[in-house]
Design goal:
Blueprint (H helix, E strand, L loop, with lengths): L6 H12 L4 H13 L1 H24 L1 H7 L1 H27 L3 H4 L8 H13 L2 H10 L11 H33 L4 H24 L4
Length: about 210
């Protein structure tokens, strides 16, 4: 279909990759735990929009430039790492203001616009996602495909749809669990801190990792 092959294998492989935790999942869990299902869903949609950028880049060959240029990869990697650390610090600061009795001030949730934008940038500024699509999608494009860019877009759309569906499930599950623990303020505060700390760790790890 659309110049692809082994579509069922692609779907299964994609689902397995989607359920593997990463920065995107951490961000959704953090937002869902702090602000509920709606924020988690918006975060998932932001990440889905970021994934579309990578899919378009892979289809148009832009990811090949990133893969071939060590300098371009290093620049994008450092930008992505810095942004992950920034998001982690933001979550840590938000956890301190969650409990007015502890922090002495009212908790101000992030706007849905900022939640979406942070999710979008968390995904877009991860160069390893770009390289993943460049390496993964072509494996399922037929050699005689009438239009390889169209085949890549088709596969990317399936991957993004399945990934967004999974992320929405993660957001719902996290919000539901968080709602049951709404009265356990200490637990939620430390949960937020744990997610924020993980973001900082992932950002530092990405910055210190090898370029390739």
């Amino acid at each position: 279909m659309f110049g692809t092959h082994d579509l069922w294998l692609f779907v299964v492989s994609g689902l397995l990759l989607n359920v593997t935790p990463g920065p995107d999942t951490l961000y959704i869990i953090g937002r869902s735990g702090m602000q509920g299902w709606r924020a988690g869903a918006i975060a998932a949609l932001g990440i889905g929009a970021g994934t579309l950028v990578h899919i378009l880049a892979a289809s148009l060959g832009l990811s090949a430039i990133l893969a071939a240029s060590a300098t371009a990869f290093a620049v994008v990697k450092m930008l992505g790492a810095a942004y992950l650390v920034y998001v982690g610090i933001s979550l840590l600061r938000a956890s301190r203001s969650r409990l007015p009795a502890v922090a002495g001030e009212e908790y101000v949730p992030a706007s849905m616009r900022n939640v979406f934008l942070q999710g979008f940038l968390t995904n877009v500024l991860n160069p390893k996602v770009a390289l993943f699509f460049l390496a993964f999608l072509p494996q399922f494009v037929a050699a005689d495909a009438p239009s390889k860019p169209l085949a890549l877009l088709f596969l990317g759309a399936i991957f993004d749809l399945n990934g967004t569906s999974w992320n929405l499930l993660v957001a719902w599950s996290t919000a539901r669990l968080s709602g049951r623990l709404a009265g356990v303020g200490t637990f939620k505060k430390w949960f937020d801190r744990a997610v924020g700390s993980l973001f900082v760790f992932v950002g530092v790890k990405l910055a210190l990792s090898a370029n390739r």
